[in-house]
């Protein structure tokens, strides 16, 4: 399984981008994949082909409203690991000697 | 205020990096700045000079254990806005018609 | 057309990554798309679906040699523009009052 | 020595960003550090503190013209290596069995 973090920003459309993020979140929710929204992007967990196809759909959705769109993405491809959205943070907290809980 | 998202990875040190993230989180906690850890990086809020200095300290800490270190970072510099770690996610949730709550 | 910049790094495989980059460049060359290799990544120009499929192939190629692979990517999606690998740099040089030439 | 790749984009200022890149290139040139401009960002080589300070100056320069500025950056920190802007590409070309030359 793969974690994909992405952040999509239209250029020349004002400085607020939350309406575009919301439209992408709706696409991600329809996919049924696990996801997490944070202040600098959205993380999705799935197979590599699935998450890249989702990124393509999100970019094309934002491009309906803007002639130019930039997207930054990061992929963590780890064979044999699932549930990474939660387990990676838990693993760091464990090293810090903290019990699991809200960040 | 600025949001800085960073992810620091040593090369050639095995495939688990959580111990290095934990050491960076300790440096960030000592700074007293607001931060949030997620599965693909850590977000810190502060003045531009502050967060870049923190990133330098974290890279140098990881470089104590590895000859080569890569760091990816993203900065959201927005004049006159504070509390962005929480408010950006809340703004997207509002557009989605959701009340505030756990992600 | 889209510019995709990507950088793929296997974890736990030593600190030199040029052999993995070379294998990705061979995949990109076979695609026939325009590309440019620089010190921090590789830029490819094509349709959105094409360049994402190429990125997937490159990640899967590197994953043959490593259990964990990270990839950072940036996409510049600009409708109606082609040749951006060259024209974007030329546009900056023009603003600087320089004639076109080697960087 | 460190390679820093950065890309700075103002939000809400139109879809062309080359004038902002040009102003950053002027700041980088005044620093005297080696740099390379490509279609998706600018690479600078220097000490970690130097290149981060340069990034801060560039962000602040672009922020004079825009209320919101985003910056993506990647750092390759490799102890005992200099000249990486050229040598990294040369190393890949060597693996590909090509002699050095224009990309």
From TrEMBL, chains A, B, C, D:
Name assigned to this protein: Thiamine-binding protein domain-containing protein
GO cellular component entries: cytosol
Cited Gene3D superfamilies: 3.30.70.930
SUPFAM superfamilies attached to this UniProt entry: MTH1187/YkoF-like (SSF89957)
InterPro entries: MTH1187/YkoF-like (IPR029756), Thiamine_BP (IPR002767), UPF0045_domain (IPR051614)
Similarity field: Belongs to the UPF0045 family.
Domain Thiamine-binding protein residues, every copy: 5-93
Pfam families in UniProt: Thiamine_BP
Source species: Lacipirellula limnantheis
């Amino acid at each position: 399984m793969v974690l994909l973090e992405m952040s999509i920003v239209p250029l020349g459309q004002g400085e607020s981008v939350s309406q575009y993020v919301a439209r992408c979140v709706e696409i991600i929710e329809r996919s049924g994949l696990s996801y997490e929204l944070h202040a600098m992007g959205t993380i999705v967990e799935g197979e590599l082909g699935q998450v890249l196809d989702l990124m393509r759909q999100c970019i094309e959705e934002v491009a309906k409203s803007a002639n130019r769109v930039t997207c930054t993405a990061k992929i963590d491809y780890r064979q044999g690991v699932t549930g990474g959205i939660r387990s990676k943070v838990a693993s760091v907290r464990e090293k810090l000697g903290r019990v699991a809980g809200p960040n």
